[in-house]
Amino acid sequence: MSGYDDTDAFEGALSLSQRAMMGARGPAPYLEGLNPAQRAAVETLDGPVLMLAGAGTGKTKALTCRIAHLIHTGRARPNEILAVTFTNKAAREMKERVGHLLGTGPEGMPWMGTFHSVCVKLLRRHAEMVGLRANFTILDTDDQIRLLKQLILAANMDEKRWPARMLAGIIDGWKNRALTPERVKGRDTAEFNNRGSELYAAYQDRLRTLNAVDFGDLLLHMITIFQAAPDLLAQYQRWFKYILVDEYQDTNVAQYLWLRLLAQGHRNICCVGDDDQSIYGWRGAEVGNILRFEKDFPGAHVVRLEQNYRSTEHILGAASGLISANQGRLGKTLWTEAKGGEKVRLIGHWDGEEEARWIGEEIEALQRGTRGLAPVDLDGQAILVRASHQMRAFEDRFLTIGLPYRVIGGPRFYERLEIRDAMAYCRLAVSPDDDLAFERVVNTPKRGLGDKAQARIQAVARDNGISLFDAARLLLQQGEITGKAAGQLRGFVENIARWHAAVQSAGPVPVVSLGEEDDAVIEADPDAVPVRAANDQSHIRLVEQILEESGYTQMWMNDKTPEAPGRLDNLKELVKALEQFENLQGFLEHVSLIMDNDRTGDEPKVTIMTLHAAKGLEFPVVFLPGWEDGLFPSQRAMDESGQKAIEEERRLAYVGITRAEELCTISFAGNRRVYGQWQSQLPSRFIDELPVRHVEVLTPPGLYGGGFGAAGGFGGGRGHSSIDERATRADVYNSPGWKRMESRGVTSQPQRRGAIAPVADGPEFEPGERVFHKKFGYGEVTGADGDKIVVAFDKGGEKRLLASFVVPADQAGDVPF
Ligand code: ATP
Ligand code: MG
């Protein structure tokens, strides 16, 4: 081995004395805890081994023991074992577990990691073989896009019609399939207006000149090197005595080829996976790789594990029932000794905010141990979402109630690139002198301001002690910035000034408006988050306007990468978040609090993550919100013809349920608000596929069970309501989705409970009756008008409001605060 070496990967092996010590330890205690099938997988050290088994059957555990066993028996030194896991986190955990099993600590496994992390180490050693130097840089997506854009322009193509991000996606797809530019053939050559492969070649040349690679190159270059240098490959084949791969079902073609090259000599390769958990098809993963294993490695020892050690009977039953709807699968039997336990709970909510509110309360109740279960601390509880924009409602809610949480596998909602950009625009509207915000978005979307122009603005600001905004205005006045950039910068500056004027003219918005003739009757939020009047949407409209006039939304609409739709969804979600605030300032304050919340220590926290990121993990308590058609399965999957995409979504649902050890709760909302409009949601088709005997349908709080529940009564958890919304509700009740929920016994129309006036039936309060309102306290009904009543509150004067917002005075205790 020669060349650049930034690791001790090929040195630092166990010393002879260490090995002797291990040998002297006698039979390995870790083998005791394995069942016979696992033990066979661990002890069959020579030749190919495939562990193809369902979730929670101890595949990862067996894989870890196998590594320990290889080392313990002296078959291989830690640095002769190549072990590939799906995430760096999984690799770290595996290292620790092996160290623990052997009592040696987590060090000394240099070749345990993700495909990328292993390949980057290898490529640094042999970079010159693909025309790079050992210190090559790895481009991030932004750099990659910038580079491609230049190439597209140089090729005289219209970047608007043929965006760089689209090309990046195409090239990435080719790299996932291990196609170098020369290997792009057939139908693929038609990509990107027939110019795709030519631009791909140009891009690879450019990367080489820059001494850079992108992520896809890490594997691709290694394959190229191994294919071009059989001697070198043979050296590595000898070096890596044993190869182990977790989550094999999600490998793509390039990863598969790379593994096959390395394993071809000794064939000591052990792959574990579950065809039912293949969830990365959209990124080029080929579930066929695992199904073909026995063909690729004839004589492979195939181990099937059937006992699930993770979940209770009902959780397993629900998951198995669901996945059985998939056609293209091997089919497996799973069983568990953990009989009984809680059934999978299913609950429908009025809307997403109520769902978040309810889950927050459940988490706290479970933490206290008040659900008939032993207390489960926050680290043991997770919320797994289909789409990252779903996280926002939980983050906001948990901040409000002070519930510590962490977001794994991606930035927290308000830390996302597009949200930070949009927030920067909002901050500028509130305060144009916010230099950080100005800097962030002055050239996003592109306004033709080069580094020089930006540096000039900075210098003028510094020299004159003024803000960047004022400096830009000054430079424009003095004609120092010219050309196209000047026009664009002027537009930007003028926009900010106009938005700022709009913020100022809105003035302080009254928190509650009552007694007005315009029916703007609202309900106070029990958690005292500022609530705006229901008909005042000025700040929401302003933010929509800002995103539009700045060109920011358009920028993502033009973007053809797979992430762009998600980013647009997040922007919509941001607008939705505004609904709970009376003005833009209040919202910005709230967000800065969220960011502040970031600096929490090591206290236990609820985990919020996507289903994709949750692969391989387990939690005692799992919440699976948002099971609605269009969200889960995703709209894209539903739009695609054929079963393929839906089946992948179903596998994702299977992954979700099987993360739970003791308690799994699936929920959905009957409505989601998009741009201030109700959208009625159909419960996910997957809900219909859950075997009834493993599912318990919970009575939803408040609205559905009738009466005021934890969610704070009518209006759900949103803290406001209006007559118009009520009309929409009636529509919802008649919608097929709602009927379907009813038929499943999941939800029901609001029912009368005590003397609470059901909206549909009109008020039932008599003048003179004493009532109680959450915000205004006690009062006396003085009149009724349709479904509205007039109440003379003891402390708040006379107000006209919806009858559903009050309860008879003797039931005041039922109203939670
Ligand atoms: P997934 O498909 O979700 O990745 P997996 O098959 O990799 O699951 P593991 O994570 O290895 O399953 O194991 C699931 C749980 O079962 C873990 O908590 C593990 O410690 C436990 N477990 C595995 N095998 C045994 C066993 N033989 N005895 C007791 N517990 C076991
Ligand atoms: Mg696993």
* Total beta strands: 23
Based on Cα principal axes, name the global outline: globular
Per CATH, the architecture of the largest domain is 3-Layer(aba) Sandwich
Mean pLDDT: 81
Described by its quaternary structure, the protein is: single chain
Sheet-strand content, in percent, reads 5-15%
Describe this structure in words.
The chain has 817 residues and is an alpha/beta fold. It folds into 6 domains: 7-126 and 219-305, 3-Layer(aba) Sandwich (Rossmann fold); 139-207, Arc Repressor Mutant, subunit A (Orthogonal Bundle); 313-412 and 598-695, P-loop containing nucleotide triphosphate hydrolases (Rossmann fold, 3-Layer(aba) Sandwich), CATH 3.40.50; 417-447 and 489-584, PCRA, domain 4, CATH 1.10.486.10; 699-751, no CATH class; 770-814. It contains 30 helices and 23 strands. Strands 11, 12, 13, 14, 15, 16, 17 and 18 form an 8-stranded mixed beta sheet that branches. Strands 3-2-6-7-1-8 form a 6-stranded parallel beta sheet, with helices on both faces. The chain has a 5-stranded antiparallel beta sheet with strand order 22-21-20-19-23, with no helix packed on it. Helix 4 links the parallel strand 2 (81-84) and strand 3. Helix 9 (215-228) packs across helix 10 (230-239). The N and C termini lie far apart (69 Å). Bound molecules: adenosine-5'-triphosphate and magnesium ion.
